[in-house]
Amino acid sequence: MKLPASIQAWFEQHARAALNTLGGLRLRLASSLMTTAVIGIALALPAGFLLLVDNLEAATANREGSPQASAFLQATLNVDQQRDIAAQIKALEGITDVEHITPEAALAEFQRASGMQETLALLERNPLPPVVVAQLRSGLSGADADALISALSAIGAVDEVRVDRVWLERLDALMQLANRGSGLIALLLGLTVVLVVGNTIRLDIENRRSEIEITKLIGGTDAFVRRPFLYTGMWYGLLGGSLAAILLMLSVLLLTGPSSHLASLYGSAFQPMGPGLSGTLTLLGSGVALGLLGAGVAVGRHLAAIEPR
Amino acid sequence: MIRFDSVSKRYPGGNEALRGLDLHIERGEMVFITGASGAGKSTFLRMIPLLERPSQGSVMIDGVNLLRLRRSRVPFLRRRVGMIFQDHRLLHDRSVFDNVALPLVIAGRSHADVGRRVRAALDKVGLLHKEKASPVTLSGGEQQRVGIARAVVTRPPVILADEPTGNLDPALSEEIMALFEQFNQVGVTTVIASHDHALIERLGHRRIHLQDGRVA
Ligand SMILES: Nc1ncnc2c1ncn2[C@@H]1O[C@H](COP(=O)(O)OP(=O)(O)OP(=O)(O)O)[C@@H](O)[C@H]1O
Ligand SMILES: [Mg+2]
């Protein structure tokens, strides 16, 4: 019966430290709330940025009708031959739709758009080639899109293929930058949390100097003296993480109306997503880890220096 | 139980508090340490729970050479030595009960055990009715008794007291010394530094007189 009793005592000690430190935070309510708010905001900022990037990725993956490829056909083909080619292209795997633009239609559109009717009328023949605009299936991987474009170019009557992929690549690059940037922000703000908790715990240690001395005087081990400060750090992290999760959920709630209006303008059914369960747990976990780290640093630096007189 | 072999203590700054102190206190003895101010009484007592380390010589407590005691074991030495300080060293933001409970909480005793032992210790020093009070609301003598209750609550084999009756009236001093005699009667090794020669004479226990950091 010796072991269970000591295990029970161990749990009792930890439960007591956990509850006492939580009570201590309540006693110093104003300053605890302030520290919690700083930690919550510092955690919410990078998490919100990451969530924004995730949402942008989801929103752009949902968009309709792109990417596009334009196949320029040989000018010598007649309209029937052009239609055949268009049908042939439409039958390719990965192409959802095609639009066939004859040279005449292209010229008429160009004249309407440019307002250069007189100048163009001087030309003795239509310089524009027939074009087939192909809609590629959305979500196509880069390699698949490249294969499709080679298949298009391989068709004998196709002179040239041009792909409207530049903006996609730009978006991709932008996303990567945003991801990298949010990693950097997360690192800096994580460091902020560690410093804020570390400084709060350092002041706490300073204020409880005589208590620490007396505890060591009558046989408190280092672990015993450390425990309440580590628990305080943990609570700060947990409370700050919870606050960050609440802030994120509120922001998503506030943005749902305007963003679905914006999405509907683009004909998309996109809905912004919140942090979700795993996001919330990650936030709480990071809060606890950073809080413990900050407290651990402060305890390691300042507690050993206090020896009983 | 307590053995000092040519122990010297030089404080940083050059003060030589002990100069080759040799003494031996048996298990279960009750001993008074006397000597003029500055003779080294407090320094001697503080070496036993390793609040000070000797500059030279060796200190053995219960067969353990303190020079060889690992840092991580020091708290466990201190738990076996109940020390009473002249300035009480109480926590002023905790109740009397919590102050006396601290050694038990440190030792990881169960909640029920803590309550029982704290009340027994407070009863012994006659302060059971003050368990909820804050130490600052107590008189000097009452604070001294809270310090005694804290020192004995874990029933340590050794009790050290540094001028426990320093500024108490004679009646109260007598009461407190009687308390120490009671602990000693159940086998606790008791070492008390004191100036109160009249009282010491009357009690008639072994007396060790220090002069210039050694036994006179
Ligand atoms: N922390 C310290 N630093 C430097 N010198 C000290 C320190 N503590 C004590 N001393 C010196 O060591 C000598 C012995 O001091 P100690 O406190 O042991 O004497 P004491 O016998 O307890 O005196 P008292 O009866 O006044 O309490 C004194 O000269 C004192 O000045
Ligand atoms: Mg002294």
Key terms:
heterodimer; A: alpha+beta; Alpha-Beta Plaits; four-stranded antiparallel beta sheet; 10 helices; B: 216 residues; alpha/beta; 34% helix; binds adenosine-5'-triphosphate; binds magnesium ion
Q: What features would you describe in this structure?
A:
The complex is a heterodimer of chains A (309) and B (216). With 309 residues, chain A is α+β, with helices and mostly antiparallel strands. Chain A has helices at 2-27, 29-61, 79-90, 103-114, 117-121, 142-154, 166-207, 209-217, 222-265, 276-302, and strands spanning 68-73, 95-101, 131-136, 158-164. A four-stranded antiparallel β-sheet of chain A has the order 2-3-1-4. In chain B, helix 3 runs parallel beside helix 5 and helix 4 crosses helix 5 (140-152). Chain B has a domain at 93-155. Chain B has 216 residues and is an alpha/beta fold. In chain B, 34% of the residues lie in helices and 25% in strands. Classes of the chains: A alpha+beta (309), B alpha/beta (216). Chains A and B meet through helix 1 and helix 8 of A and helix 2 and helix 3 of B. Bound molecules: adenosine-5'-triphosphate and magnesium ion. Adenosine-5'-triphosphate (ATP) binds at residues 11, 13, 15, 17, 35, 37-43 of chain B.
Please state the structural category of chain B. alpha/beta
Order of helices and strands of chain A: HHEHEHHEHEHHHH
Write down the overall geometry of chain B. globular
Give the spatial strand order of the biggest sheet of chain A. 2-3-1-4
How many strands appear in the DSSP assignment of chain A?
Answer: 4
Total helical elements of chain B:
7
Overall structural class of chain A, as computed from helix and strand content, comes to alpha+beta
Strand content of chain A: 5-15%
Main beta-sheet strand count, sense and barrel state of chain B: 6 strands, mixed
* Shape category of chain A: rod-shaped
Task: Give the CA-CA distance, first to last residue of chain A.
Answer: 39 Å
